[in-house]
């Protein structure tokens, strides 16, 4: 038996990298995993045994420090959220949806906004306002251009010695960036669909790739995210600027909607909470409440 990490999951097989010899072994899950409710994920540290490179079994899965449902991956150190300034257009609503999911899983986030060299001066000024907004909240924000080599140079210091998940809008250049970081990958990329205004989903599975002394997961693109499993009172915890103010609210469990003496609503007046972020919070809260009402029937 040996310790290893699941680097890829595909068609019922788990590709486990041995912690000692760094060789990769094709494994199946133990027969009783399904009965025990265990589903191994990419990123899991596991105990496995293998007679050869193609005939092994995952025997045990270590406790996870975190896990994501979409993409299905465990033990992530940070999320690289890649959004484009144009083609497809930057969506702060979608970015905030991703940030809620990442905060919910207590994963550090780096926001990468690509293709900023395609913006007009007026558009660039607007994008720099977003950069300042998210940096003031506490996120790292990297603006990159269509010059992929320069973009990668900015990213490398954040990759080393970490397990990163790459996610964001479809068609923003996630796969292209990984190809520049590791040219031997030759990950399939597609042009933006002019009709739909978004990229085709070229990535079919989650796989950890060794890049710049770190591990990066290339993941399928998403067009939407829901809040399954999140309670209404937990949402504001995923907005760091609101969570920081919530202890000052008059009422415990304040929803920051209609209650008097709400520090978050006061923060709207003082600039500590951005109006658009607050509007997205209200939208997400309504979605969570609607989900809860459906489940309660």
What can you tell me about this protein's structure?
The structure is a single chain. The protein is of the alpha/beta class and 297 residues long. The chain folds into 3 domains: 2-63, Beta Barrel (OB fold (Dihydrolipoamide Acetyltransferase, E2P)); 68-218, Rossmann fold (3-Layer(aba) Sandwich); 232-296, Orthogonal Bundle (Ribonucleotide Reductase Protein R1, domain 1), CATH 1.10.40. The protein contains 8 helices and 15 strands. It has helices at 33-36, 92-104, 121-137, 148-159, 174-181, 240-246, 263-270, 275-296; strands spanning 2-10, 13-18, 24-29, 45-52, 55-61, 67-68, 73-74, 78-84, 108-114, 140-143, 163-168, 192-193, 198-199, 207-211, 214-218. Strands 10-9-8-11-15-14 form a 6-stranded mixed β-sheet, sandwiched between helices. Strand 6 and strand 7 (73-74) form a beta hairpin. Helix 4 packs across helix 5. The protein is globular. It starts with a strand and ends with a helix. Mean pLDDT is 86; it is low at 190-203.
């Amino acid at each position: 038996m040996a310790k290893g990490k699941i680097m890829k999951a595909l068609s019922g097989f788990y590709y486990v990298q041995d912690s000692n010899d760094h060789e990769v072994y094709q494994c199946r899950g133990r027969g009783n995993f399904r009965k025990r409710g265990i589903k191994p994920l990419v990123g899991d540290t596991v105990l496995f045994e293998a007679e050869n490179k193609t005939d092994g079994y995952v025997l045990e899965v270590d406790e996870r420090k975190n896990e994501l449902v979409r993409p299905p991956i465990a033990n992530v150190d940070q999320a690289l959220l890649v959004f484009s300034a144009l083609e497809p257009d930057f969506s702060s609503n979608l970015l905030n949806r991703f940030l809620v999911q990442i905060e919910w899983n207590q994963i550090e986030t780096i926001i990468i906004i690509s293709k900023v060299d395609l913006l007009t001066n007026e558009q660039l000024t607007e994008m720099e306002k977003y950069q300042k907004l998210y940096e003031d909240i506490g996120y790292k924000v990297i603006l990159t251009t269509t010059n992929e080599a320069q973009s990668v140079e900015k990213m490398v210091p954040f990759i080393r010695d970490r397990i990163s998940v790459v996610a964001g809008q479809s068609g923003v250049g996630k796969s292209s960036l990984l190809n520049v970081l590791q040219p031997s990958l030759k990950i399939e990329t597609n042009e933006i669909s002019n009709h739909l205004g978004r990229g085709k989903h070229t990535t079919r599975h989650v796989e950890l790739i060794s890049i710049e002394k770190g591990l990066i997961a290339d993941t399928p693109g998403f067009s939407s995210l829901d809040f399954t499993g999140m309670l209404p009172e937990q949402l504001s915890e995923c907005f760091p600027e609101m969570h920081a103010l919530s202890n000052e609210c008059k009422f415990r469990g304040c929803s920051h909607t209609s209650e008097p003496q709400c520090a978050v609503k006061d923060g709207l007046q003082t600039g500590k909470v951005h109006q658009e972020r607050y509007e997205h919070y209200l939208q997400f809260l309504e979605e969570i409440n609607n989900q809860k009402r459906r489940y309660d029937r």
